[in-house]
Design brief:
With about 375 residues, this protein is α/β, with parallel strands linked by helices. The protein contains 13 helices and 14 strands. It has an eight-stranded mixed beta sheet, sandwiched between helices. Helix 3 packs parallel to helix 5 and helix 10 crosses helix 12.
Length: about 375
Amino acid sequence: MKVLFISNDPSLFESDSPARSRMRAYAGYADQLHVLSRARPNARETQEGALFLHPVRSSKLFSMFALMKRARSLIREQSIDIVSAQDPFEHGLIALRAVSDSRAKLHIQVHTDFLSPFFAEESLINRIRVRIAGDVLKRANGIRTVSARVARSLAARYGENIREPSILPLAVPSPEGNAALPAHAFTFTLIAVGRLEKEKRFKDVIAALELVTRQYPNTGLFIVGEGRERKRLEKRARDLGLAGRVIFLGPRRDAAILMRSANAFIQASAYEGYGATLLEAARARIPIVTTDVGIVGEVLKPEHSALVSPPYDVPGLVENVRRLVEDNPLRHELAIAAEEAVAAHLSAAGNLPERIMADIAKCA
């Protein structure tokens, strides 16, 4: 089986990146795994055994056209059997067009809960993406999603007009080692991890912190990640008088173990298909405050293994943080329950690289 992944992750071309590690694992279950992605200028064609990495060094504006052209040539030159796109939006459309004049089958990955009402409300481009996804998914030979939440939304929207999606979670490595937060004087520390993008709603986390510190002034927040919202978030923290209480750490590959040094994890996403950082927090054995997204309800149960509020509900976040500040036994119970729930979830998933590649093979 020869498979082509169409991705959008420049870190694939870094030999020590988590993304590269995942691709190596997947390649172990294919005759050849070709991965095509937009890349930084210094990225080069790379082969590691059955894994072949193909960079497209193009501006973002023209990268979609470049990816489509390269995908078509790879399908023809390498006799690709299956093309799998990382999303049903731009990359799904590229994959659909690329296989249109070939014998290759189309496989689509759905990692985002794009049928959440919050997704379409966020921007015009997201409303366009929802329309693209409907057309792409109806033509796919196979669909894989990452959570029961997303599978239910697909079934409700498309019914028998699409193939029944497989539900396979993301592979989340077990964190090893230790890492300490920078020196601070906080008596209670929150940590938030993720891309600093609008849908992650870090601004709600900062707003919640401002309200919490009125009662517990020694509470601090560490934010791990990078993105287009960083400057706005830094300004929001300053405007709320929190410049010394919100610490931006930037991107950190040790985020999963850095969590162990905090008192609690907090997430305020408007939507998530899965929520890998929730699993990382559970495996770090710290209590979780989160919005009702991704694997919440499926893996992490409200009030049992996480404190949960609806998206956009800043007062709900505040109340849940206050509960953790005030109740040490609750922090301990939630952390243990979350760790056990996630361990059972990942154990049931089995060998994910093997299962994911077997699921793709069904398209052939």
